[in-house]
Every structure is written in structure tokens, then in C-alpha cells.
Amino acid sequence: MTSRAHQIVFENVSKFYGEVLGVNKVSFSLGPGITSLVGPNGSGKTTLMNLLTGLIRPSQGAIYVLGLTPQQPIEFFRQVGYCTQFDSFPPGTNGYDFIYWPLRLHGFGRDQAAKLTSEALERAGMAQVARRKVAGYSKGMRQRIRLAQAIAHHPSVLVLDEPLNGLDPMARAESIALFETIAKQGMHVIISSHILEEVDRISDRVVLMSSGYVVAEGQIREVRREVHDHPTQILVRCSNAARLAAAAFELDHVVEAKILNDGHGVLVRTRDAEQFYLLLNKIVSGGLVEVDAVAPADDDVNSIYQYLIGSDGGPA
Amino acid sequence: MAVYKRRYTPYTGSLTPERSRFFVLTRFAFVDLFKSRFFVLLLILSLVPSLFFAGYIFIANNKAVQLLLPTGPADMFSVEARFFTFIMIVQTQAAFLLNCWVGPILIAGDLTNGALPLFLSRPFSRADYVLGKLAVMGLLLSGVTWVPSLLLFSLQAGLARGHWLWSHMWMVVPILLCSAIWILMLSLISLAVSAWVKLRIVATGVIFISFFIPAGLGEMFNAIMGTIWGRLLNFSYLFQIILARGFREPSSLLGTTGWNEIPVPAAWGALLFVCLLSLVILNARLRARETVRG
Amino acid sequence: MRAQDLVARAQRWSKEQPWRLFGSQIFILVRNEVRRNLFTRRRIWIYLLALIPVLIILAHVILDRNEPAGPAQIENDTQVLAGIAQVYYFRLGIFFACMAIFTWLFRGEIVERTLHYQFLAPVRREVLVVGKFLAGAVVATALFETAVLACVFLMYSRFGSAGKAYVFDGPGLGQLGSYLLVTALACLGYGAAFLALSLLFKNPIIPGVVMMGWETIAPIFPAWAQRLSVAFYLKQLCPVSLPIRGPMAIFTIVPEPISPFIAVLGLLCLTIAILALSCFLIHRMEITYTAE
User: For residues A21 and A16, what is the distance between their CA atoms, to the nearest angstrom?
Assistant: First the structure.
């Protein structure tokens, strides 16, 4: 129960839409920080988010968000903010009212709601256009006003379905900075996105989904280590690439050592990265090779995605 | 090993003739309709009264069965013009319900989802589009109006033998003509309303209401102003006036006295005016562009 | 005060006084729904539904102003007014207006894809049902009470002092009170029924049509079944009996009279029971717009 009170817990959750599978037997728990849901279209990311926020009910299993369920809506939605993918708004509303009235439903007084509305508009960079009708907003503005509504009541759990869609590079950078700030305050931020480079940069952990199943879940490096089918790629920038390549080939677990075109580095593919790093230490301490830089070349979300999901259709 | 170059090759097969191209829409609409279990149920229910009428005709022509009935043989089993008027009233009301359900499905979805520009960007005109949708309604509503009525007519002709067929052949004309005006009016109203309001649920409601509220208002107008012309807003009444005249029946058949006060040409004129108005609305609303109001 | 403190204070307040929170939530829901339902161009035809009889009576007042205004004419117009109220308003106008207003409360939000905003607010779904129902009731009642009032005023105003005497010294005021009461009850009863239908069916219009059929033919059913019809209670409260004969009499016939108090109480109980059903149904509802 203690862990439930601080985590988002999925316990054997399945959702079927008639005969169509939404998600199947999903079990994991998420702590504070940024978690990214990654997967191709139709893999079940939005279904998972809708289940998490109670917009749909699981066919099987249970979901707890900080120990709460959507059956306790007052307490639950105080803690949860959800920026959905639905690009629709109540007819005739303007940006200010769109945030203000839901805050009043939270129980905030007029002045309090007004203050929080202004604050949310500022954070989303929408203060200047708040009094304009939402119907006249651009796609990026609509995205940001939804984000502003989701964060206005200072939730502990922020769920964002494709929050970077339709944003220009500047707005995207600002949004990412906002997510990072929120996460640093100890909140849970759950993001689904197709933009893998950005997911990679901001995520503390990922949940990879494919065809309704969770394929992998955890910190990116941990997940990469568990992918044994694909040898780890390590890029070494060094002075004597040929010698390093020769030394590497003496190890059983190295399957490939490719000298870079400029002759100042080697791309090694190994089944045991730890052993290769030990060898590298020996070579460097022996003074045979001068190493400028060592970096794993494929422990990012993009590579994991390609290894685990790529064959299912690849990124959308 | 061979390398196959992929390149564009235009379609070289035969094309649907231009004149019958609108039937493509009709065909696909029917496929979609029959996927709905509710539609199938509604269609079956619309045809149930015809089964009872068939049973009635069978009994009316079978002395042995009449003798077995507790009431005994009687003249109550009479299959004449009045009976066919009644059949037509029942079946046209069934057609009305079917129309309320089907009409909005045909057009509202296309307009809500912005599909009209897709249709009209092909060698397909607005007239083809409307014809395609009208054909769905025409075929469907024929199936519950004049087709069962003519089948019942044939059944009676077959069972009665003798001169019945020749002495009653004239009834084929009102069956076909009255069905035609009713089907045309229902179809056009439902397509026009769907094109106007776009949302399917709302369209269903408005089509339904358009047969009740104007009738109620018309009666109110009559009561307050002491006139009869308010009944021009009662489409069912106007149709029944035409029906009664077509079957050479007195209008008192239709219930309350005074139902025959509206002249038949005025009834025809009102129904044709409604059809024309619906066409004008369709012409205004079915365009290959969309106006988005901010 | 910091934003976090504001949040903490609001949380404390709602925990300590949940009923005040429900009350304020209902008030906000009603306010927002009324604005959405009453002040939009799309609703013009509902205004027309309520106000066309007023316009017809106005035309009558203007065109027939030179007619003699004796007691017989007042009696005649009282009958006409009863017909307008009992046949048009209570059986058609209010019925279809409630169909439009109350089915749109939830179904409209699904069509417009905005219901998730309601479901993501910290509002109990029962409170959502009550708030929306009250909003619909406010709109429908305000519209039709105004229309009925205008009809009565116009109908008797053309008789001058005789009309005034009929209303204030005769049975007119009592009849007006009854019509206003029946109008309000009709809005509540039909409203609750259509709200429940909109939660039960994707396209509530066809069940609405079935309901219309039931409301019409209920008088021929056993007494217990008649009590499940809104019209059964409304007819008991109508102040003027209409001399309608033939099949149309089914609109006005009262096969089993009950006292006005029981009629009001019965209809309110029926309304509450249907609302309770709606509260149950709303818990089953999910946001799957693509399935609509």
C-alpha cells in the first residue's frame, strides 16, 4: 500500500473493445519523473493513458494512481492532469474560460481560480491570446491551451498524449523545459510521443508498447542491456584505430570492429560491453592507444525501438 | 536474380458507364446499411404488417377457414379498395419510420466527416451524388410500400379468380402513384434535413419532428383563425387525402369528419412544393467546399 | 499566496465541506450548460417550437380585434387555449423540445468530442448528471413557462375588462397556475426520461419515438402501467377538459383520476427514479468517440 501511495500501478490490466484488443495484461509501476510511452500507432499508448485517467474502464485488472482510483473523482482528479489528443473544445469558449471554469469545479474561489488561470497561461505561453476564441487558435496554440488546462491545478501526475504534436521548435523546447521542471519538483510526468530524439533526451524511463503489449519497461540503459539479440555498439575515438580493432577481434564476444572512414576511431559491436570496457582500460593503461572518447552508440530510445518494435511496422 | 522496376501504370479495365455511375454509391450504401442489425430489424418489422394482410386475404378467400372461426362466415372479410387504402396507410407509415433512420445515415456522415469534396473531386457530379442517395431511399422505401402492396394485390387476384383482377386493375395506378409521391417526398425531406443539420442524431429528430410539429401548429392555426388551410402543414393528412381520392374512397374513411376539406389539387401542390423546397436546400448545402466558422 | 498553498486550501475546504463543494459544482455546471444550451444560434428552432403559438395568437388578436367579445367568445377562446396547452405544448412542443435539450446534454458532448473535459474534472458523475439535468430543466421551463404566460396574456387581453375579470375574478388565474405547474412538471418528467435515454442509446431519437408512442397509448393499458407514463400525471392536472371525440381523444382521456397532490408527487417520484437510473448509467459510460 505504501508503494501504491507514491506510484502509478498497473496490475494485470487488459482492455478489449469488443473483440479488438486495446492493451493486454499490462503490469508495471511508475515512480516520479518523466516516463515516456513509446510505440507505433495503434500499439495501445492512448488506451493506456485513458485507462490511467478513468476515461475508459479496464476489462480486467486494476489501476492505482498514488493509491487512488477514478472512482474517487474529487481526490483523484486533484492529483491528475490529462492533456488528451482530442483536438476539440467546448463551442464558443475562449482560452481563459477554458482553464478558469474547470478550476472553479475544483473548488477554487473566483480570485484563486483567476490567479491559477493566469499562472497556467503564463507557463504555457498563452497569456497574450487568452481572451481569443479557441476556435481561432492555430494547432500549436490549441495544443498549448490544453497543456495549460492540464497543469493549472498543479497536479502530482501529469499525463500528456502527444504533447509536442503541432508545436514549432521554439514552443517544443519551451514545453520540454516545462516538463523537466515539473518532473524535478517530484511529480509524475507520463508522455506519449513519436519524436524519439526528444523522448530520449527528457525521459527517465520508457515503456515500449507494441500491439497492445508492453514490450519493455524501465530505464533506457537497463532496457538496452536486456536486449541480448542485438550486440551493443560502442564508438571509440582513438589515435591508433587499427591496433584497437585488432585487439578487439581477439575477444570472443566482439562480433564486429569497424574502423571509421577518417581512420580515427572504431565502431565495435559486442555481446558483452563490460568485458570490452575492461579490455579498453588495459589497452589505454598499456599506452598502446590514445583514446579521445568512448560512447555507447545504440543505448537510446531510437535503437531500442528499432530492435524491439521496428519489425512491427516501425515508427509512425 | 531479377530486378523489377516499379512504375505507375494507369488502370486499363472497363469503367462503369457514366449514366449508371451513381449506382456505385447506392451499392456501397446498401452494403453499409445491411451491416446494421438495427436496420435489418426495422426492415423486417416494416414488412410484418404485410404478413398479417396476406393472412387476412387468405382467410377472406377461404370459406373453410371462415367456418372454423368463432364468428363464423361473414362479410367482414372484404378485400376491396378500402382494404388496399388501409394497407397503403400502414405501409407508408412504416416507410416513414424507416426513412427517419436511414436518411441521416446516407448524407450526414459524409458532411460531418468532410467526405463530399472527396466524392466531387472524382468524375462524379452533385446530381450523381444526390441520385445515388435517392436511389437508396427509393429502392428501400419501394420495398415496404408499393412492392408488398402489389404482391398482396396479386395474391388477392390469384385467390379470388374470376373477374376480380380485371375489375380492380385500376387500383394498381393509385398504389404506384401514391407510393411514388410519398417516397419522393420522404426521401427528399430526409436528405435535405440531413444536409442541413449535418449531425445524424439531430437529423433523425428533425425529420421526425417535421411530420408532427407542423401538423400540430396547423391544427392550432385552424382552431384560432377558424380556417382549414393550416392542414397544408400536415403532410400525412395531405397524402391520405390523395390516397383516398386515388382509391375512390370517401374521405370519411380517414377518421374525423371534415378531413376532405382541403382540395386534392391543393394537397398535390403542397407535397410537390415540399419536394421542391427540399431540392433547393440540397442544392444550397451540397457543395464541394466547407465553411469553417471560427 | 503561493499556488501550492491555494491548491492545499481548496483541497482542505472540499474535504471539510463536501456538500458545499457539490452545491458549487452544480451551480457552475448549470451556469455553463445554460449558456451553452440557451444562448446559441443552434437553439433557435426550440424557441420557435415554444413561441410559434404565441405568434399565431398575436395574429389572432390583431386580425380579429373587431370581433364581438362576449362571454361565449371568452369560453370559446378558453377551449382553444386548453387545446394549445394540452395537445400542442404538453404532447408535442415540450416533448420534442425536451428531446432536443436533454438528449443533447450528454450526446451532444459526445458528438462534439468534449465530454472528456467533464469526466476529467474532480466532479462526481452523479453531480454531473444532476447539474446537467437542472440546466436542461431551467432552459426548458423558462422557455415554455414564458410561452404559456404569453399565450394566456394575449388570449384574454383582447377582451379588455371582460378578459381581466375572467382572469383575476374568475377561473383564469387558477387555470394559468395549473398550466404553469403542468409545464414545469412536463419539463422535469420528459427531461429526466430523455436524459436517461441519451445515456442508454447512441441515437436516442428512435427510442424517443417509441416513448412518444407509449405516452400516447398508455391510457389503454392497466392502471399500474399507466403510472409509468409522464402524460398520465400531466392530464390529471389540466384545468379545462377538452371535448375531443374519436381517436384524438386518447390525448385527453383520463381513465383513472387521481388527486392533484398524488399526481404531482407521483410525477416527481417518477422523475427522481429515472434520474437515479441515469446516475447508475453514467458510471458505465466510457470515452470512445470513435465508436459513435
Answer: 5
Query: Which chains reach chain B with 3 or more Cβ–Cβ distances below 8 angstroms?
Result: A, C
Same domain, A195 and A282: no
Number of domains, chain A: 2
Suggest the residue from C6, C43, C281 to mutate for an interface test with chain A (most A CBs closer than 10 A): C6
CA-only gyration radius of chain B, Å: 23
Which residues on chain A are in Cβ contact (under 8 Å) with C7? Answer: 78, 116, 153-154
Tens of pLDDT along chain A (316 residues)?
A: 456 778 999 999 999 988 888 999 999 999 999 999 988 888 899 999 999 999 999 999 999 999 999 999 999 999 999 999 999 999 889 999 999 999 999 989 999 999 999 999 999 889 999 999 999 999 889 999 999 999 999 999 999 998 888 788 888 888 888 888 888 888 899 999 877 777 777 888 889 888 899 988 888 777 777 777 778 888 888 888 888 888 888 888 888 888 888 888 888 888 888 888 888 888 888 877 888 888 887 777 778 777 777 754 444 3
Give the dihedral of Cα atoms A92, A95, A96, A101; nearest 10 deg: 60
Whether A206 is covered by a domain: the verdict is yes
How far apart are the C-alpha atoms of B165 and A58, rounded to whole Å? 65
Max CA separation in chain B (angstroms): 92
Averaged confidence pLDDT in chain B: 87
- Of the three residues A178, A208, A225, the one that is the final residue of a domain is A225
Q: Which residues of B touch C59 (CB under 8 A)?
A: 224-225
pLDDT score at B5: 65
**What confidence tier does B85 reach under pLDDT thresholds 50, 70, 90?**
very high
Give pTM, 2 decimals: 0.84
Count Cα atoms within 13 angstroms, Cβ side, for C143.
Answer: 29
Q: Which residues of chain A neighbour C282 with C-beta distances below 8 Å?
A: none
CA angle C115, C186, B204 (to 5 degrees): 50
CA distance A238 to chain C (A): 52
The grid coordinates listed for A201 are 533526451
Quick check: C114 and A102 CB within 8 A? no
Minimal CA separation from B293 to chain A, in Å: 8
Contacts of C17 in chain A (CB under 8 A): none
A-chain CB neighbours of C122 within 8 Å are 73-78, 105-107
DSSP labels, C56-100: HHHHHHHHTTTS---HHHHHHHHHHHHHIIIIIIIIIIHHHHHHH
Return the minimum-mean-pLDDT range out of A57-66, A110-119, B84-93, C12-21: C12-21
What DSSP designation does A312 have?
G
What is the domain-level CATH number for residue A68?
3.40.50.300
Interface contact C88-B224, CB threshold 8 A? no
**Distances in whole angstroms, Cα of residue C25 to Cα of each of A103, A112, A121, A253, A284:** 10, 16, 23, 65, 69
Q: Do C6 and A17 touch (CB under 8 A)?
A: no
Same domain, A209 and A239: no
Give me the residue spans of the domains in chain B: 18-63+75-285
How large is the average pLDDT for residues B96-103?
Answer: 92
| Minimum Cα–Cα distance from A146: chain C residue | C117
Same domain, A73 and A116: yes
For residue A101, give its domain range.
2-225
Q: How far is B113 from chain A (nearest CA, A)?
A: 14
Q: A131 and A246 in one domain?
A: no
What is the residue extent of each domain of chain C?
21-291
More confident residue, A313 or C209: C209
